[in-house]
Amino acid sequence: xxxxxxxxxxxxxxxxxxxxxxxxxxxxxxxxxxxxxxxxxxxxxxxxxxxxxxxxxxxxxxxxxxxxxxxxxxxxxxxxxxxxxxxxxxxxxxxxxxxxxxxxxxxxxxxxxxxxxxxxxxxxxxxxxxxxxxxxxxxxxxxxxxxxxxxxxxxxxxxxxxxxxxxxxxxxxxxxxxxxxxxxxxxxxxxxxxxxxxxxxxxxxxxxxxxxxxxxxxxxxxxxxxxxxxxxxxxx
Length: 236
Fold this sequence. Notes:
Layout: E1 3-14, E2 17-28, E3 32-36, H1 43-50, E4 56-63, E5 66-67, H2 73-79, E6 81-84, H3 96-102, H4 112-122, H5 124-128, H6 139-151, E7 157-161, H7 169-184, E8 188-193, H8 196-202, E9 205-210, E10 213-218, H9 220-225, H10 227-234
Parallel strand pairs: 3-8, 3-9, 6-7, 7-8
Antiparallel strand pairs: 1-2, 1-4, 4-5, 9-10
């Protein structure tokens, strides 16, 4: 099967500090791929390089056959590669509805009203709070809002960067159930997480990133079968 997202030999970093050291990764259409690793492994740098926010110094990023290496972030969004960033980054003084509508600023503008109702159908709590300022919502509600804003752009691939960070165990369960629902509806996802057990329970394939390099790639069953890998890279 042809990869929807194909990353080959990717290197990037900040100034003279190289963070990614030749990463190879791919996501096929209809998959959930989990990208795992500890803090500082390079996961967010990978997301931001793919999304056009950090410049690659070597390697290539292709999306549905198009070369997006060092493309402007607007071009990345226009292609349908949408990131939901770590930390939610909602606009606190804007309403829920206004935050969602901003998600369709570059892509999906013509179907904004239809997509808004679709998001409200997925997240009934957002529908109830559509006029509420985003900054007054709970962390879990803000995470729903951030994901809903990403869905407004009609993603072909949705990149979720640490979506469960800071959420209660109950909300984490709810979040991962939602991710499974989006997957069943046909959405391809790159799930970047420290929550290893939950991620592997729903992923088709997994990568483990350590010090900017891929240390493992395979099925969740393969990863869980290796005591060495679990202890060395996942703390399990």
